[in-house]
Every structure is written in C-alpha cells, then in structure tokens.
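fyi for ur records
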Amino acid sequence: MSLPMQAIAPDICAAPQLTPEAMAEAAAMGFKSVVNNRPDFEHGPDQPTSAAIQAAAEAAGLEYRHLPVAGGYQSPEEIAAFADLLAELPRPLLLFCRSGARSTRLFLQAQQLG
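which gave:
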C-alpha cells in the first residue's frame, strides 16, 4: 500500500483522510510528524477519531498534532497556530484532512505570515 499524497514543499506532503493503520507506513516512509486538520466526526461516525490516529502515530514514533479547521474557512488564529506547528515539528511532515486541499490551503496561508 502506498499513501495517496502530494508534495507541497520539499519536506511537506498533504494527503486525504488517513487511518490509524497508515501511521506505521508514514513512519516507514520517513515522515517524522503528522498534522490532522480534520474535525472529528466531520462526516459521520465512520471517520477515524483523532485519538485513534494519535495513538497509532505515537506508537509508530511520529509526532502528532490535531488542529481541526473548517473546510471552507480558516481563521487568522488557526493559520497562526498552523504556522507555529510548521516551525516546531520535525520534518518531513505529513498533513491531512478530508481531501488534502484544506491542509494545503493552511500551509499556503501560513507561508504568507513569514
């Protein structure tokens, strides 16, 4: 299995919804950190919870952060919080949300703060 992802910077990739099982694969691929930008239960009970993904990420040796944001709008505070995560987390970094677009937008907006 290979994770569906897109490089958005030399050491940052964005992906659609990841499962707890994907965390070991992400670690094996060389990622050091994972950021989940999707609110829990955004599209119902079948979506894996942040807690389940975090447990799997930490078991795989990954840093994990949950910064849930809405799909249509990210506030200046959320963008600033994301910029802080970009500064603090070890790379390579894997970001995800429902489709990957929200994480990509957050990244681009955080870059403009620099």
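The chain has a mean pLDDT of 95. thats all i got for now
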